[in-house]
Design a protein that fits this description.
Blueprint: H1 9-21, H2 28-37, H3 44-51, H4 55-65, H5 79-104, H6 117-135, H7 141-150, H8 155-164, H9 166-176, H10 180-188, H11 192-202, H12 207-214, H13 226-238, H14 256-261, H15 266-278
Helix pairs in contact: 2-3, 3-5, 4-5, 5-7, 6-7, 6-13, 7-12, 7-13, 8-11, 9-10, 11-12, 12-13
Length: 298
């Protein structure tokens, strides 16, 4: 029997990048909706008509509009009313949440994440990112939410490679005292954050999301949107740690540079941590205002 010989680094990297190159584009209807949301002259009726062409998004939008978090006492059955209740910014978050739910709910064996675990982490990061943005008076709260929600999507494309080299990655992390993303960089020539940024670019997402995803571990490397990447970095560090997952091995500490970018000293971080304790972290088993289905039952 022959011993397993890992493929050369460039061969692994080419195989990883091929996944992005072969990735299907986002549906045309999604791009039309996102473009409409970016135009101030778009009316609620025009947006409702676009949403109506996508059955799943129609259901997600109505569900979000009827969420108890919005505080309305009467039910909403009209797409136009749903659009008006949510507003364009929150509706953008609804669209991305609907897109992200199924892929982020997958089991990632390489990372030691069970079905739904990455989704729970992503939603928690998104909610903390919005809360941090609110405390710091960042202009666009929903941008912070979306960036937090999508920050780890590169793991979906790296998982099979992590699984193949799991023991070497763990050994490298322990010997060199480095984080998961740094071990990925050594083993594959790319980490999940940079890979996620390439996916976001392939899907023609706004550059602010591309940068926030790509540089959420190194926000100072972002070209324009350092603040958004820094918010996601700190939000990511606030999420509950799972000691059984690969990410749980490195403790998920905030990057000190992220604190500098946001002009936070340790007292400022304590203030954010206090906000974290006051804010409930919603998982798949809780009602979440942007989740397409009510997962509180059972």
């Amino acid at each position: 029997m022959y011993a397993y010989t890992p493929p050369p680094l460039c061969e692994k990297l080419n195989a990883i990048l091929a996944q992005v190159q072969n990735l299907q584009p986002l549906p045309t209807s999604i791009h039309q909706i996102l473009r409409a949301l970016n135009k101030p002259e778009t009316t609620a009726k025009e947006l409702a008509n676009l949403l109506a062409t996508d059955q799943a998004l129609t259901a997600h939008t109505l569900h979000a509009a009827n969420s108890a978090f919005l505080g309305y006492s009467s039910p909403c059955s009209s797409l136009i009313e749903a659009v008006m209740r949510l507003g364009f910014n929150q509706l953008r978050s609804v669209v991305f949440t609907g897109l992200a739910l199924n892929p982020l709910s997958r089991r990632l064996v390489g990372y030691g994440l069970g079905a739904g675990a990455l989704w729970e982490h992503s939603v928690a990061t998104a909610q903390y990112a919005r809360k941090i943005a609110q405390v710091l008076h960042y202009a666009e709260l929903e941008e912070a939410y979306i960036a937090g929600l999508l920050h780890d999507m590169g793991k979906l494309f790296l998982d099979q490679f992590v699984l193949e080299d799991y023991h070497q990655i763990v050994q490298l992390m322990k010997e060199k005292q480095i984080s998961v993303w740094q071990a990925e960089e050594v083993m594959f020539g790319i980490d999940h954050a940079r890979l996620g940024g390439l996916v976001a670019k392939k899907w023609d997402l706004p550059s602010k999301f591309v940068e926030a995803i790509q540089y959420h571990h190194l926000p100072s490397f972002a070209w324009r949107y350092k603040e958004l990447g820094a918010i996601v970095n700190i939000a990511n560090s606030f999420t509950p740690k799972d000691s059984t997952s690969l990410a749980g091995l490195d403790g998920r500490l905030p990057n000190p540079i992220a604190m500098e970018i946001l002009q936070l000293d340790p007292y400022g971080l304590d203030r954010l941590w206090g906000s974290k304790r006051e804010s409930k972290c919603h998982s798949r088993r809780n009602v979440h205002p942007y989740s397409p289905t009510d997962r509180s039952a059972g």
